[in-house]
Design a protein that fits this description.
By secondary structure, the protein is α/β, with parallel strands linked by helices. The chain has 11 helices and 7 strands. Helix 9 (about 215-235) links the parallel strand 5 (about 200-205) and strand 6. The longest helix is centred in the middle third of the chain and has 29 residues, at about 165-195. The radius of gyration is 25 Å and the shape is globular. The N and C termini lie far apart (about 55 Å).
């Protein structure tokens, strides 16, 4: 292996270590103990300054300036927090949901957070309906001409067990929204994402990684399917588009209470100590920050990854 030292601008720490190693080879030729201490100290005294000069690691500043970001399920919860944060970071966001009042509130907060006071594109849509998915894609492209970031956050949960009379109906509805709508929307937007070298993050769940989720069997299966979709899509779209998944654990939003047949035993009132190793629930804002990093240029080396942020729920000891 041949290493050229050059001017040291690209590999200052490596150059220092090579020089220091060369100095260390002469260590045995130094006569006095005092000279040995001075020589050895000289080698390592350079490291703190060199480490602090590595701007790429010490001065990360996430920016999404002028990036077009479509965030589904963005009228409340993780989606709303993500739209607001992305606006703050300079992105042009597209938000969507089913309720006018919640969309209006999120839109106002996005505009206030935006450095340019950019108004988001608001698209009222029910993504369980194919025509609404198409309409969302069409309105986004008509407004912005393309997108750079797609956050597939839409989804819902249900706890109907497999013997429940409502199980198959719930199963179909959940896979329609949690999986098929995401596949359809992504399919429609792949050309523009490839053109712009974009990034996709599917918001999944630790429920896709473990089956013991309070009888949310259909939800678990839908999120497991979404995780595999993430990996397959990442493989197909590389190197043009990065595709990753964020798998939250319990987050302090209204997701649980909004779930159809939601389990009463799993609630924020039960307390984080019962469910998490860190004895806390995550927040929508924390998930938004993780998503911002995942789609940013500071994270260009990641694709096909399943990122868990669950307050240690999956490692929580029984009892």
């Amino acid at each position: 292996m041949h290493l050229e030292r050059g001017n040291g601008s690209n590999f200052p720490l490596l150059n220092c270590l090579l020089i220091s190693s060369a100095q260390a080879l002469n260590y045995s030729s130094v006569n006095s103990e005092k000279e040995k201490r001075l020589s050895f100290g000289c080698i390592f005294s350079k490291l703190p300054n060199l480490l602090s000069s590595q701007d790429s690691t010490n001065n990360m500043d996430i920016k999404l300036t002028n990036k077009v970001a479509l965030i589904t399920g963005s009228s409340q919860g993780i989606g709303a927090a993500t739209a607001i944060l992305f606006s703050k970071l300079g992105a042009k966001v597209v938000i969507t949901g089913r309720k006018d009042d919640l969309l209006a509130k999120t839109a106002q907060e996005c505009e206030q957070a935006s450095p340019q006071k950019e108004k988001p594109l608001v698209v009222k849509a029910d993504l369980s309906k194919e025509d609404d998915v198409k309409m969302l894609a069409e309105k986004t492209l008509a407004k912005h001409g393309g997108i750079d970031i797609l956050i597939n956050n839409v989804g819902f949960g249900s706890s109907y067990g497999m013997t429940s009379p409502q199980y198959l109906e719930s199963y179909d509805a959940m896979f329609q929204l949690n999986v098929r709508s995401i596949v359809q929307l992504t399919h429609l937007l792949i050309p523009t994402l490839k053109e712009r070298k974009g990034s996709i993050v599917n918001v999944s769940s630790i429920a896709g990684l473990r089956p013991d989720c309070f009888f949310w069997w259909s939800y678990c299966m839908s999120k497991a399917a979404l995780d595999m979709y993430t990996k397959c899509l990442a493989q197909e779209l590389a190197p043009d588009v990065r595709v990753n998944s964020l798998n939250p654990g319990p987050v302090a939003t209204k997701f649980i209470e909004n779930a159809h047949g939601g389990p009463q035993e799993f609630s924020l009132a039960a307390g984080p100590k019962e469910f998490t190793a860190l004895e806390r629930f995550g927040s929508a804002e924390e998930m938004a920050k993780t998503l911002a990093f995942m789609v940013s240029d500071d994270n260009i080396n990641m694709t096909g990854s399943i990122i868990v942020s669950d307050s240690g729920t999956m490692i929580k000891k029984a009892g």
